[in-house]
Amino acid sequence: MESIARLDPDRRRRTGVPEVVYAEGKLPEHTLELIARLREADPDGPALATRCPEAVLSRAADFFVGEEVTVDPLGRTVVVGALPRPRGEVTVLAAGTSDLPVAHECLTTLAVLGVRGRLIADVGVAGLHRLLGVLPELEGVACAVVIAGMEGALPSVVAGLVDVPLVAVPSPVGYGVGAGGVVAAAAMLSSCSPGVAVMNIGNGFGAAVHAARIARRAARADGADGGAAVQEARHG
Q1: pLDDT digits 0-9 by tens, 64-84
Q2: d(Cα 196, Cα 145) in Å, to the nearest integer?
Q3: I need a surface site. Which of 65, 146, 156, 214 has the fewest CB within 10 A?
Q4: What does the angle CA 38 – CA 100 – CA 66 come to, to the nearest 5 degrees?
Q5: Among 205, 207, 149, 143, which Cα is nearest to 178's?
Q6: How far apart are CA 131 and CA 5, in angstroms?
Q7: What whole-number distance in Å separates Cα of residue 142 and Cα of residue 163?
Q8: Local confidence band at 2 (pLDDT 50, 70, 90 cut-offs)
Q9: What is the SS3 assignment for 180?
Q10: Measured distance CA(205)–CA(211) in Å, rounded
Q11: Which of 171, 123, 122, 167 is CA-nearest to residue 148?
């Protein structure tokens, strides 16, 4: 396998984020073997593969007999290994149902990184009352990921209404001049709401990494994870 990939199993220790297999463009057998090698070389956490084709999604459970395997056909992800205990929380908002594949990739990545993800779906600006109805659910959230296609307006609206670090993801959803998410990306990059961090088109994985780092630091700062560990140590 060294002829096609040089794995970096030490990445989790250096950056807090393990190396992940990007399956698109790879042969299914290469993807499955790379996941297996990551599990062997970095057993401290689960191995994740994103953008998996059906040939990987359908074979994963049989390939990793004896392992805990989580397959998400909508998000096109495969996770091998037990998920870590969640520390911190991120809310993921999806403008429409067509944005759910990106949202699910984000949610799975958050879980692999040890962060609790909560999905709020179908709150796009075409029916603004839907968004206004869920705004109270964003109070106290460490970070929010907002995914939208078409004209990509949702992140700007959310950022103008709440005091929450916000990661915007343009979704490759829309007709004609939407150009596969380019219009949404340009709109988010041009947002008049300050402080919006924008990921690449469809990059739910990257959004989750950014949001997880914010959420985990917030959890450490308020003792959300440390307190439980101390109590367990005292009473174990």
Answers
A1: 999 999 999 999 999 999 999
A2: 10
A3: 65
A4: 30
A5: 149
A6: 44
A7: 10
A8: low
A9: helix
A10: 10
A11: 171
Residues comprising the chain, all counted: 236
Structure tokens at 214: 């914010």
| Token code pair at residue 81 | 């290994």
The closest alpha carbon to 19, from 34, 8, 31, belongs to 8
Tokens of 82: 């037990």
For the chain, helix (H) and strand (E) counts, in that order, are 10, 9
How far is the C-alpha of 70 from the C-alpha of 181, rounded, in Å?
A: 28
Question: How much is the pTM?
Answer: 0.89
Give the separation between CA 152 and CA 173, rounded to whole angstroms: 10
Up-side HSE of residue 49: CA atoms within 13 Å toward CB?
A: 32
CA distance 150 to 188: 11
pLDDT confidence bin for 228, thresholds 50/70/90: very low
